[in-house]
Amino acid sequence: MVGAAIALLYLWEDTREYRGRWELGRARLPLDMNTVSYTEFPAAAVFGLPCMLRASPEISTGSVPSTDILMKRVRPKPHTARFTSRVVAGFGLACVLATFVFIWLTSSPSEGAELPAAAQYKLKLNRAISPASAGTILAASDALFARAGLDVRMVAGSGDGDAIAAVSADENTIGVASAAAFLKARSEGLAIVAFAGCYATSPIEFFTLPDTTLLRPSDLEGKRIGYKRGPELSVVLYEFVAKNSLAQSKLLPIESEEPVQDLLDRKIDVLLGRLDIEGQEFARRNIEYKTLSPASYGVHAAGPVYFVQERTLGKRRTLEKFVIATAAGWSAAYADYDRTIPIIANSIDTPLSRLLITRLMDAQRGFLRPYGTRFGELDERRIRVLHAQLLQRRLLQEPVDLTRAVNYDVLKEAYRSEANNLSRDEP
Q1: Mean pLDDT along residues 304-328
Q2: Where do the SsuA/THI5-like domain residues begin and end (predicted)?
């Protein structure tokens, strides 16, 4: 339509030019309306120009112009080609604009048209929803997942086995489990693959009540050490014993279903557990405790991992978006406690005071992203050491092909595309 309007404007300007020339020359050039040449006046074919011109005196008397004048007046002028080119250019422009408008109308979503559905995933935890999941909570509440085209629903679990079973049954489920439990499941033949770390380092600690002496590794000798059944905690315990030359004969390890309660009931002297699980429970009950960190004495265990089915790696770009959105969620969680702590408090399973949530958030910084690491980073050396320890203790049925069990490409691409959110600085 715009092009057509331009073409008409050109025609109108041409008409005005010819009408001016007629007014200036009509007294000297008698004109018979029957001899008007449309070659000389092409605009007349469009606007009916002869009807607009006033007849000259020669026409009223019936005089006829001479042959010389007639031949002169029908000779094509240079401006005729200019006018024709204007018409062609206007018509071409109109076609081009019409094409662009058609493409825009057909490619733009019409009112009420449905947007592409977000990719739906379930995040299956190996524990309750707690401040340890603050990054995922903020990624969901701040619509970071939605902007990435993801619909992520977080579901609490009751242990590593629960998360592994959920992933094995559904390719649209992302699981969280300890690195040891993941490798054990992979050794048993499950086609699952780890693609990112939940914590960069293990949050395992030794816990005692205030009246129990636990200042150095040797203080563990002669004490009853309770821990939940599973490869993760047992490997850390025996690695700690080996690293610090403790006498195993003087240790009393005890597998416990309720280690926190057993510690309170004095059935055990020391509890080996996780800061984000047992540590949170102590804090929730307002129970004072002391800790001893294995990392302070040479045991640097791999942290829990995110994992999926092997076939889910075919949607690698989706997993990259998940990592990027979760990292941005953690950055948001630590950016403004006044805004984020109430959001976390309303999203976790176990009610906690805002002050306690703040304490737990501060305590897990060192496990989430220690200085010099990036969010989600998988330490290949730690995973290989853990694999060797599990084989040595015969906790794996078969050696695991780590090149197939752990995928580092998802993180590499996420680091490349989102260097700011996945930087090596602390959150």
Answers
A1: 95
A2: 131-336
